[in-house]
Amino acid sequence: MTSAKARLQSQAFVEDVAEEMLSSRSFWADARARFFKNRMALVSVFMLFLLVLFAIFGNVIAQWSYEEIDWNLLGMIKEEGGPSIANGHYFGVDELGRDMYARVVQGSRTSLLVGFVAGIASVLIGSTIGAFAGYFGGRFDSIVMGGYTIWLSVPYIIFFVVWQAFFGRSLGQMILVIVLVNWTAGLLIVRGQVMMLRNREFVDAARMLGLSDVAIIFRHIAPNILWVVVIYTSMVVPEVIMMESLVSFLGVGIQEPNTSWGALISEGASTMTFGTLWQLAFPAAFFVIAQVSLYYIGDGLRDALDPKDRL
Amino acid sequence: MSLLSVQDLAIRFSTGDGTVHAVNNVSFDIAPGEKVALVGESGSGKSQIALSIMGLLAKNAQVSGRILHEGRDLLTLSQDALNKVRAKKIAMIFQDPMSALNPYMRVGRQLTEIVELHEGLGRADARKRAIEAMEAVQIPDAKNRIDAYPHEFSGGMRQRIVIAMALICKPGLILADEPTTALDVTVQAQIMRLLDEIQSELNTAVLLITHDLGVVAGFCDRSMVLYGGRMMETAPTKDLFAAPSHPYTRGLLRAVPNINDAAGELRAIPGSPPNQLRPLTHCPFAARCVDAVEQCRSTLPELTGEATKRACLRPVEALS
């Protein structure tokens, strides 16, 4: 008998394997294992974690606040305003003499906050509407789909400008308007999934057992489409950050002196011809790191949760 | 006093091709604790009868007639009122245990949810009840298996859980819609024996819907034969098997392959099921019936008789 065969027949091997075979492996446990095998996704999670730490605690080591003007540097920003440990401006100063480091921290806060809050909120709203439309069908579904089609034709930048002209440009308004623009996020995909699941026998079984429609949607159908919603959220969050940056870049975003990645990139881009490249480079680097990490996390989640499409 | 009384039930579906007359003026009663079989081939409307009792028919269905349960007409009840009857008074066992359980919920949760809803039990009590229900359907190691997902069970075990879901509120009537069709033969036997034991223990009435005459023979007190959405014959199971009265029933029984039959030939009923797009004006079986006469193609016979009732102008015993 070969040693491999002996090992396979040994009691120790049986005890070893039995534990694994008996232990209950749920869908989410499998998905977690697959996600943790994806190196790029793990690195991205780590990078995003660092970014979040930076946004929350970055101010602890800042020497200046994000709205304070360093009068000593005014007028010689090109010569003296670059990144320097000595004068406390780690990332240099912007064209008004404000500390870039503090402004990047503030910009990260705004962008990440808007991205996650508005992104998650819009997916939740869109998915809920989509789930109800898919489950009930009929007239409600027609109305929702009509609204969706009409909404696709609204140019969102004009919507932003008009909305903020009326209601101001605070952070809260920003999140609200992004949720309004994105209420269709996840609607179609969840509607389609629910229409498919609605005809499955376990939904009939749940109805037979006397559960209400709302209980069936949230308790029986929701766990079945959670993976879709998770993947979709991971794609919408960077999209929302992009959208916020775009409107801020165009100057209809967040109100000065508060700032965001898009606004900082916009300011940096307008002065880059004067040789003050650090004003563009630092916010752009943070923006790119965030976007790339979020996309890789989304990709990893899709691979982990929907393994059918993988090679 | 009957537990469930179906009177003149007719179910039609409006489809793109026209109106499908799925069930035509079917009436029957089920007494408490009685085991009744509803036999018929595919498309005979047997599942639709069960779904109409539960109020789960598709949206394009039109129902007429009455389904009386404890003096109330189930067809006129609101969804809320119906939700209080479902599971508590009448429960259903579905055909395919692979799809009748939610793949993303632990089986325990699917069981506890029902008693939490209908009996207002707390989490801990509900869990105790769920374990009891799983033990009642003879699932080994129920205490640990309760936290497993459906895919971790075999087909037979899953069907036991589906049965446990139907039984957990101890309903007076169970509609079993082909409960063994998706299972292999040895498991079929186990499941039917289990149903039988539970039935006699709780004295629940069972309406067994099936096309499998072997299952009926071993289980039911009374059998009803459905064809083309119409009741053809109803009789005590013993009499039905010994002396079928309706030519269709006779054809069905002959079509069951017999291992002792040297001929080894399958004796199917010639022809195919009727087109249900037309309302019934004559016996739906006439076109396939070897004993049919001219009158069979113009009149619709009523269900008549004492213990054995048949809807036939030329019943088998009258010919021989």
UniProtKB/TrEMBL annotation, chain A:
It comes from the Bacteria. CDD domains: TM_PBP2. It is a multi-pass membrane protein. GO terms for biological process: peptide transport; protein transport; transmembrane transport. The chain crosses the membrane at residues 41-66, 112-136, 148-166, 172-190, 225-243, 277-298. The keyword Membrane applies. It is found in: Cell inner membrane; Cell membrane. Pfam families: BPD_transp_1, OppC_N. Its main location: membrane. Keywords: Cell inner membrane, Cell membrane, Membrane, Peptide transport, Protein transport, Transmembrane, Transmembrane helix, Transport. InterPro entries: BP-dependent_transpt_permease, MetI-like, MetI-like_sf, OppC_N. The keyword Signal does not apply. Residues 108-298 form the ABC transmembrane type-1 domain. Belongs to the binding-protein-dependent transport system permease family. OppBC subfamily. This is Oligopeptide transport system permease protein OppC. It comes from Pseudoruegeria aquimaris.
UniProtKB/TrEMBL annotation, chain B:
Keywords: ATP-binding, Cell membrane, Membrane, Nucleotide-binding, Transport. This is Oligopeptide transport ATP-binding protein OppD. SUPFAM superfamilies: P-loop containing nucleoside triphosphate hydrolases. The keyword ATP-binding applies. Residues 4-253 form the ABC transporter domain. The gene is oppD_2. It is found in: Cell inner membrane. CDD domains: ABC_NikE_OppD_transporters. It comes from Pseudoruegeria aquimaris. Signal peptide: none annotated. Its main location: membrane. Belongs to the ABC transporter superfamily. It holds the Pfam family oligo_HPY. One of its GO terms (biological process) is peptide transport. It comes from the Bacteria. One of its GO terms (molecular function) is ATP binding. One of its GO terms (cellular component) is plasma membrane. It is a peripheral membrane protein.
